[in-house]
Amino acid sequence: MVSIIIKSFFMCNCGALLFLIYICTTKKTKNMSKLMYLLALVYFISSCTSSSNEVQDQEGQAQHDHDHDHDHDHDHDHESTGDGVHFGASIDAEKAVQLADALNRIENGEDAYDLDLGEGNMVQAVAMKVEGQVSEVCQKAGCWLRIQTEDGQSLFITTNHEFFVPVDISGKTVVVEGAGYKAVTPVEELKHYAEDEGATAAEIAAITAPEEEFRFEAKGLLIK
Q: Is the model's pTM score more than 0.85?
């Protein structure tokens, strides 16, 4: 009888074991047919428990696969985010100034205010909409671009990874809304942007000095 109880311990849950102990301690256990019935009951309970564990394992695997797919999709978040015309905040071209005029306003600090670029880095910025032709775009993610005048003056525009633009918009006219300012870009950052643009190793190595340039934090972009 003891061997039956021990075997039952490995085959069923605690509830079934207690039930079996109770039955086995009564005089009715002398009836062999009832003992066989109990063994069948234990086997049935054990089978149900095993099936339940298999279902739980399958559900756990399904959840794992879902999480994996979610992480995989997250790796592609750097695709352009917009309706093909508007990216980031929805803006229009009303009151947009041409790039040359925008650079003059930034240079003169017209209606400037303090803009915190992070880590206490404060600059004098001018809120505006600017229109210009795209000359460069980040080829890795579309997180920055540059617009340029015919005489070579340019404005570096960053989205701060708040939104992403198509990487094939070079040559197109765009309007951006945000804040323009002047800042010194360190060498490492310049090299990073050159790498994003697809520059060669030699071209990247040739960048050895920081540059003061006109920059722009965009909250929205419109392709005209």
A: no
